[in-house]
Design brief:
This protein is of the alpha/beta class and about 675 residues long. Among the domains are: about 105-165, Alpha Horseshoe (Serine Threonine Protein Phosphatase 5, Tetratricopeptide repeat); about 275-370, Alpha Horseshoe (Serine Threonine Protein Phosphatase 5, Tetratricopeptide repeat); about 400-480, no CATH class; about 495-670, Glycogen Phosphorylase B (Rossmann fold). The chain is about 55% helix and about 10% strand. The strands form 2 sheets. A 7-stranded mixed beta sheet has the order 7-6-5-8-9-11-10. Helix 30 (about 555-565) links the parallel strand 6 (about 540-545) and strand 7 (about 565-570). The relative contact order is 0.04.
C-alpha cells in the first residue's frame, strides 16, 4: 500500500468514527513523512475527538509550523485551546485563521465566542454581526449574538435574535431555553414558561428547561405543579442538596409535610451545614408542632448563617405558636433590623402585637399582609384611604381572602357608611343579600373576577381593603363600639328555622360546629371529634343542630350509632353555597357552640350567643387570656390550658351550661354571661 492509499485509509477510518485506528494510521504515515501537514492536522483533530487535548495541541501546533497558510489548521487549534480554557491562545489561533480567510463566517463566530468569554462583549458582537452578514441563515450564530446582547442588557435585541434562531431551526432546544431565560428576567413568566415547556418537548433530557419551569411555578405559588418537575430534576441530580431542598419546600407549601421531611433530611445528609435547609426544615417542623426539633434546626441555621432572615422569621412563628410572644417579637424585630421591608416579618410582628392587644402598633404592621397577597394588590386608580374625613366622599371597600375575616371586619362598615357620600362594598358573592339588608346606605357588589375597577361603578375618591379599616377605627381597645349586632338576617327565613327547631322537641336549640381551619396545622390545633362532645349531647334540655360546613354526614352517622345521640341536620342553609340562609339558620338558634371557624363570626355578627372553643395558642383575633372579645358582644371564649387538651374546655362548657339550664327563664342575655377576665378591664 503506497503512502497515498495510507492517507486515504486514515481519513476513511476517521470519518467512520474509528478514531483509534485512524490515529494508528497517522502515526505510521508520520514515521515515513514526519512533516506531512495534512496528517499532522488529521492526528491532531483525531486526538481532540478522543479527548486527549494536550496531544491534540502538540500535533496541531506542529502542523501550523509546517503549513502556516492553512486556515483550517489554525481554526481547529483554536477549538482545542478554547475547550482547554486557554482563551488567549485560542483567540490568537482564530485570528490567524481569519487573516488567511477574512470572509469565513465560522472564524468570526468563534472569535466572537472567545471575546464574549473574555468579557469583551462589544468586540464579540462586532464579529457575530460580520458572521451573520456572511451567513444570515445560521441559527447558532443568531443564538450566540443573542447571548452577547443578553449579557449587555439589550433584551429586545437578544429576543429578536433568539427568535430568528428558532425561526431558522424550530427544533433548536437550547435557543428555546435561552429566550425563556430572557423573558424570565423581564418578568414575562407565561411567555418564558411556554419556551421552557417547548424546550423539554424537543429534548426531554434538557434539565435546564425543568429548572426554568419550576422557578416560574414556585414564583407563581403553583407548588403542586412544580412538585413533579422537581422530581424529574432529581432523577438527573439525585445527590443535589439544592434540589432536595426545593422539593421539600414545594411539598411543605401544599401541606404534604410528611413527604417533605425526607427531602430536607437527605439534603442535610449531603450538606450538613446547609443553613437554608436547616431553616426550611425547622419551619416545617414548627408547623407540625415539633417545636423542640424546630428550634434546634433554626438555631443551627443561624449558627451557620447569622444573617439568614428566613430562619429568624421562622423562629418568630415557632415562639408565637409556643405562646411565647415576647420571644417571637424579638425575632421578628431582629429580622426587620436586617431588612426593614420584609413583609413576612412585619406581618408576624403585627400578629404578635394584635394578640397582645397592642392595636395601634399591631394594625400598622398588619398592613404588610397586602404585600404578600396578590389578590389584595388591586389595580385600582383611587388612592388608599388614610383615615381622613369621608364627608362628601365616595369610598370603595374590597374584601379579605377569608369569609370569617370579611364578616369580622364588616363591624367597621357602619362607621364609614354614615359620613360617606357613598360607600361601595365588594364582598363574597354569598354575602351580597345579607350585606344589602344589613348595610342599607351602601352599594353592595359581588367579588369581581378581575382586579381592575369596574367601569359601571361610580368613580370613588378612595379605596381600602376591609381589613385595613381597624387601623383607623380601632386603634385602641376602647374604640370598639360594643354593638350587639350589625348583620340583619332574613326574618321570614329565621322564623321558618325557629319552627323547625321547635318541632325537634323542647330545650335549648344549640348549633354545633366541631372542625375549623383551612390549613392542616390550623385544623389540627382547632378541630375536635364528635366523641369529645358526647357528654354535652347527653345533657337534658339540649337539642343539637349541625352547623358544620363541608361533608360531615359519615361523622354524624358514626357518632349517632356509637353514642346513641341525635344531631339534627338539614341540607338547607349550607354556608358553602348560601350564607344568607346560613345566617337565618344561626339567627334562630338559642346558642352556638363551635370551634374557631366562620360560624362563630357569623353568630357574633348576628348577636347570637356563641361559645367558642379555643386551642391554648389561638388566632390573634381572640387575643390572650380573655373570656370575651371586643369584636362580638355575644361571644364567650373557652380556652385550652395546655395544647391539645380539650377535656377541660368541654368541662367548662358543661359546667356553665348546667348553671344556666338550672335557672329560668332562659334568655339570650343569660347565655351571654358575665366573665371574670374581660377585655373591658384593659
Amino acid at each position: 500500500m503506497d503512502i497515498g492509499e495510507k492517507i486515504n485509509l486514515a481519513f476513511k477510518h476517521f470519518q467512520e468514527g474509528k478514531l483509534e485506528q485512524a490515529e494508528q494510521d497517522c502515526l505510521e504515515i508520520l514515521a515515513i513523512e514526519p512533516e506531512n501537514s495534512e496528517i499532522l492536522h488529521l492526528i491532531g483533530v483525531t486526538s481532540y475527538h478522543r479527548g486527549v487535548l494536550d496531544r491534540a495541541v502538540d500535533y496541531l501546533n506542529k502542523a501550523t509550523e509546517v503549513d502556516d497558510q492553512n486556515a483550517d489548521i489554525f481554526y481547529d487549534l483554536g477549538n482545542v485551546l478554547q475547550d482547554q480554557g486557554n482563551l488567549d491562545d485560542a483567540l490568537i489561533a482564530y485570528q490567524k485563521a481569519l487573516e488567511i480567510e477574512p470572509e469565513h463566517p465560522d472564524f468570526h463566530n468563534n472569535i466572537g465566542m472567545v471575546l464574549h468569554d473574555l468579557g469583551q462583549i462589544h468586540k464579540a458582537i462586532s464579529h457575530y454581526e460580520k458572521s451573520l452578514e456572511l451567513n444570515p441563515q445560521n441559527a447558532i450564530i443568531h443564538n450566540n449574538i443573542a447571548l452577547a446582547y443578553e449579557d449587555n442588557k439589550e433584551s429586545k435585541k437578544a429576543i429578536a435574535h433568539y427568535g430568528r434562531a428558532i425561526q431558522i431551526d424550530p427544533n433548536y432546544a437550547d435557543a428555546h431555553i435561552n429566550i425563556g431565560n430572557v423573558f424570565m428576567k423581564e418578568d414575562e413568566l407565561d411567555t418564558a414558561y411556554a419556551y421552557y415547556f417547548k424546550a423539554v418537548q424537543l429534548n426531554p433530557n434538557l434539565v435546564e428547561g425543568y429548572f426554568g419551569m419550576t422557578r416560574i411555578l414556585i414564583k407563581k405559588s403553583r407548588f403542586a405543579e412544580a412538585i413533579p418537575l422537581l422530581g424529574r430534576i432529581l432523577m438527573f441530580y439525585p445527590d443535589s442538596a439544592e434540589v432536595h431542598n426545593d422539593l421539600g419546600n414545594a411539598l411543605s407549601a401544599v401541606w404534604r409535610l410528611d413527604e417533605a421531611m425526607p427531602h430536607f433530611e437527605r439534603a442535610l445528609q449531603i450538606n450538613p451545614d446547609y443553613a437554608e435547609v436547616h431553616s426550611n426544615y425547622g419551619k416545617a417542623l414548627g408547623i407540625m408542632g415539633r417545636f423542640k426539633e424546630a428550634l434546634e434546626h433554626l438555631n443551627k441555621a443561624l449558627l451557620t448563617k447569622p444573617d439568614l432572615i428566613e430562619a429568624m422569621i421562622a423562629l418568630g412563628r415557632v415562639y408565637y405558636e409556643m405562646g411565647q410572644g415576647d420571644d417571637a417579637r424579638g425575632w421578628y424585630k431582629r429580622a426587620l433590623d436586617l431588612n426593614p421591608d420584609n413583609a413576612d416579618a412585619h406581618l408576624g410582628l403585627g400578629i404578635v402585637e394584635l394578640s397582645a392587644g397592642h392595636f395601634l402598633r399591631g394594625w400598622e404592621e398588619y398592613e404588610w399582609r397586602l404585600r404578600l397577597d396578590d389578590e389584595q394588590m388591586r389595580i385600582l386608580p383611587q388612592p388608599l384611604w388614610d383615615g381622613s374625613s369621608l364627608q362628601g366622599k365616595k369610598l370603595f371597600v374590597y374584601p379579605e381572602e377569608r369569609v370569617g375575616d370579611e364578616i369580622m371586619f364588616a363591624s367597621c362598615l357602619p362607621e364609614l357608611i354614615r359620613p360617606a357620600d357613598l360607600c361601595i362594598i365588594e364582598c363574597d358573592n354569598r354575602l351580597v343579600p345579607l350585606y344589602e339588608r344589613s348595610f342599607t346606605g351602601a352599594r353592595i357588589v359581588k367579588r369581581m373576577v378581575g382586579q381592575e375597577y369596574p367601569s359601571d361603578l361610580p368613580p370613588a375618591d378612595f379605596r381600602t381593603a376591609v381589613g385595613s379599616l381597624p387601623r383607623f377605627l380601632r386603634p385602641d381597645i376602647r374604640c370598639f363600639p360594643g354593638q350587639k349586632s350589625y348583620l340583619v338576617p332574613d326574618e321570614n327565613r329565621v322564623e321558618e328555622w325557629r319552627i323547625r327547631y321547635r318541632e325537634t322537641g323542647e330545650g335549648l336549640a344549640i348549633g354545633i360546629s366541631w372542625r375549623g381551619g383551612s390549613r392542616p396545622d390550623e385544623m389540627k390545633a382547632r378541630s375536635t371529634t364528635l366523641e369529645q362532645w358526647a357528654n354535652l349531647f347527653s345533657m337534658p334540655g339540649v337539642r343539637c343542630v349541625n352547623l358544620q360546613y363541608g361533608d360531615c354526614s359519615e361523622e354524624m352517622k358514626a357518632a349517632e350509632e356509637k353514642l346513641g345521640i341525635r344531631i339534627h341536620h338539614w341540607e338547607e342553609g349550607d354556608p358553602l353555597k348560601d350564607l344568607d340562609g346560613f345566617a337565618a339558620k344561626i339567627a334562630a338558634m338559642d346558642l352556638v357552640i363551635s370551634v374557631d371557624n366562620p360560624t362563630v363570626h357569623m353568630a357574633g355578627a348576628l348577636g347570637v350567643p356563641a361559645w367558642v372553643l379555643l386551642p391554648s395558642v389561638c388566632d390573634w383575633r381572640w387575643m390572650r387570656d380573655f373570656q370575651d372579645t371586643p369584636w362580638y358582644e355575644s361571644v364567650r371564649l373557652f380556652r385550652q390550658e395546655k395544647p391539645g387538651e380539650w377535656d377541660g374546655v368541654f368541662e367548662g362548657v358543661m359546667e356553665r351550661l348546667a348553671v344556666i339550664l338550672a335557672h329560668s327563664p332562659l334568655t339570650r342575655e343569660t347565655l351571654v354571661f358575665p366573665v371574670e377576665r374581660s377585655y373591658r378591664g384593659q
